[in-house]
């Protein structure tokens, strides 16, 4: 019997691609980046799955904070968009998002 | 303005669960979009309320009576992200020699003095709240922000951006967010969010011009010009600042930054979800209005245009938390008439018309029937001649500007309409 494919914490298929749009900040610049899912650590994958399962409130307190829109595509073709305000970025993802 | 940010009944009374269902199941894109937008606004309002619980940077001072007058404190995060960090310069302490500390201190002081002298306001909350700033936040951090309780400044990466305390207009911009939080409470999403950003840009440039003793026609009307690092100073790109109030959409066009996305007219309104629904993008539209009004009056921008905007944006009962550009237009036109005269109101009305904003309460002119195909050009540019040449803005956002940028916005605004509105603004109101 074939080994079942590993699935994410929320039951999603494995990650196929991840792109990040950073917006906001006092400059209001839009910065797009693509991150190779193969470069993610286990902890980072866990954090992503947790965000997908329970997205944080979209708005940070105050004004001019950064906001990150993560577009996650899974191996089964499905995709998910998650908006993460700067102050809700998990520590494990801080380095790759900023 | 999207239906979500209007003040109509359904926006306010539709239960969130129902909205979520509509957002998920609606087949008609406009309905789906409306439900998504309304949910976002509701969320933003709830989160704005929650922001009041952000940690107090100086809880030990809370129990002490406030000292009247200018009170500042600058902390250093020492490249970390803990707030407020270590206290470096309290009120009364001499300059430290650390440029970021001293710029944050002096910039907060200039903003306090401006608000007090020009508008008679005692500090950011009107009660001489201590102005707390933290500098050296993070490593190479390319931003400055207001966290709901204090200002925070990064040092920049040193290549693209320099330290964010270098621009007085950026310091005043951040402090103005605090003023907004204590007055109109404009929601940080879509048009109310863009008005929130716009008001901060207005205060930013006014503080700078006031400090320099500059008249409107002599100012550069740029935001953040001093932040640009060496990478942006060289070709092939060109970058002047973060934003240009005089010519939105022209502040930069650079391989590193991309192209300044600010629109200068409602027909190019950004409708995406990024940047909290384009708060730093769509602020270009009211920014251009303010610039044209200031230039139209001439002289010092804070004396007339600034006073009109200040009253319209801070007087209790005027701007609502969910104000649209149309509401801002109505309030500023009305205030111009109350504070000055019908000519002032007409100047403000024409500036809004020039960017395609019809004031709230004014009926949109009906579309004229298509003219017989004579020598008439297919589309006549409708905008009033700007006081300054404004480059044609490029289309932005992921959706075409169709919902909110009615074609009539490009139809020639009628002088009679402006005059009627200006005349009406002369009448005393309950808020006069």
Structural write-up:
- The complex is a heterodimer of chains A (98) and B (432).
- In chain A, a hairpin with a 4-residue loop joins strand 3 and strand 4.
- Chain A has 98 residues and is an alpha+beta fold.
- Chain A has one domain (15-97): Immunoglobulin-like.
- Helices cover 19% and strands 32% of the residues of chain A.
- Chain B is globular.
- The two termini of chain B are 27 Å apart.
- Chain B contains 13 helices and 10 strands.
- In chain B, the strands form 3 sheets. Chain B has a 5-stranded mixed beta sheet with strand order 2-1-3-5-4, covered by helices on one side. Chain B has a 3-stranded antiparallel beta sheet with strand order 7-9-10, with no helix packed on it. In chain B, strands 6-8 form a two-stranded antiparallel ribbon.
- Mean pLDDT of chain B is 82; it is low at 1-17, 375-417 and 423-432.
- The longest helix of chain B has 23 residues, at 190-212.
- Chain B has helices at residues 9-13, 16-25, 29-50, 99-119, 168-182, 190-212, 230-233, 274-278, 284-297, 305-314, 325-339, 342-354, 415-424; strands spanning 72-76, 86-90, 131-137, 144-146, 151-154, 222-223, 238-239, 243-244, 252-254, 258-259.
- With 432 residues, chain B is an alpha+beta fold.
- Helix content of chain B is 39%, strand content 8%.
- At the A-B interface, strand 1 and strand 3 of A face helix 3, strand 4, helix 5, helix 6 and helix 8 of B.
């Amino acid at each position: 019997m074939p080994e079942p494919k590993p699935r994410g914490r929320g039951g999603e298929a494995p990650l196929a691609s991840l792109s990040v749009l950073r917006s906001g900040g006092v400059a209001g610049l839009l910065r797009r980046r693509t991150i190779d899912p193969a470069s993610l650590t286990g902890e980072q994958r866990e954090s992503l799955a947790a965000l997908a399962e329970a997205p944080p409130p979209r708005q940070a307190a105050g004004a001019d904070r950064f906001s990150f829109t993560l577009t996650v595509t899974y191996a089964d073709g499905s995709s998910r968009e998650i908006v993460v305000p700067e102050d809700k970025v998990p520590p494990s993802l801080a380095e790759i998002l900023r | 303005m999207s239906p979500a940010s209007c003040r109509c009944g359904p926006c306010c009374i539709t239960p969130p669960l129902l909205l979520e269902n509509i957002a998920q199941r609606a087949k008609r894109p406009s309905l789906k979009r409306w439900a998504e937008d309304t949910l976002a606004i509701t969320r933003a309002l709830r989160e704005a309320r929650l922001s009041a619980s952000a940690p107090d940077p100086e809880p030990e001072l809370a129990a002490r009576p406030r000292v009247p007058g200018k009170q500042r404190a600058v902390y250093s995060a020492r490249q970390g992200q803990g707030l407020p960090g270590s206290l470096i310069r309290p009120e009364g302490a001499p300059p430290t020699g650390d440029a970021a500390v001293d710029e944050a201190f002096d910039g907060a002081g200039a903003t306090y003095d401006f608000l007090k002298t020009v508008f008679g306001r005692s500090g950011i909350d009107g009660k001489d709240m201590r102005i707390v700033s933290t500098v050296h936040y993070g490593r190479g951090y390319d931003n400055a922000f207001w966290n709901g309780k204090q200002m925070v400044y990064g040092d920049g990466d040193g290549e693209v951006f320099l330290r964010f305390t270098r621009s007085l207009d950026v310091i005043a911009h951040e402090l103005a967010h605090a003023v907004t939080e204590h007055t109109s409470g404009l929601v940080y999403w879509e048009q109310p969010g863009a008005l929130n950003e716009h008001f901060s840009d207005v205060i930013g440039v006014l503080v700078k011009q006031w400090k320099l003793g500059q008249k409107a026609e002599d100012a550069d009307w740029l935001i953040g010009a001093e932040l640009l690092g060496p990478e942006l100073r060289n070709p092939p790109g060109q970058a002047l600042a973060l934003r240009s109030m005089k010519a939105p959409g022209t502040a930069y066009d650079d391989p590193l930054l991309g192209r300044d996305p600010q629109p200068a007219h409602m027909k190019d309104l950004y409708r995406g979800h990024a940047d909290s629904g384009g708060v730093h993008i769509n602020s270009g539209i009211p920014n251009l209005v303010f610039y044209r009004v200031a230039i139209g009056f001439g002289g010092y921008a804070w004396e007339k245009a600034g006073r009109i905007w200040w009253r319209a944006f801070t007087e209790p009962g005027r701007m609502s938390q969910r104000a649209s550009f149309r509401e801002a237009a109505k309030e500023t036109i009305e205030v111009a008439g109350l504070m000055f005269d019908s000519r002032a109101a007409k100047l403000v009305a024409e500036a809004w018309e020039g960017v395609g904003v019809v004031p709230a309460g004014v009926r949109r002119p009906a579309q004229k029937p298509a003219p017989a195909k004579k020598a008439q050009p297919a589309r006549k540019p409708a905008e009033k001649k700007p006081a300054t040449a404004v480059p044609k803005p490029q289309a932005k956002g992921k959706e075409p500007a169709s919902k909110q940028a009615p074609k009539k916005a490009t139809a020639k605004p009628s002088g009679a309409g402006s005059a009627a509105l200006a005349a009406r603004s002369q009448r005393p109101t309950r808020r006069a």
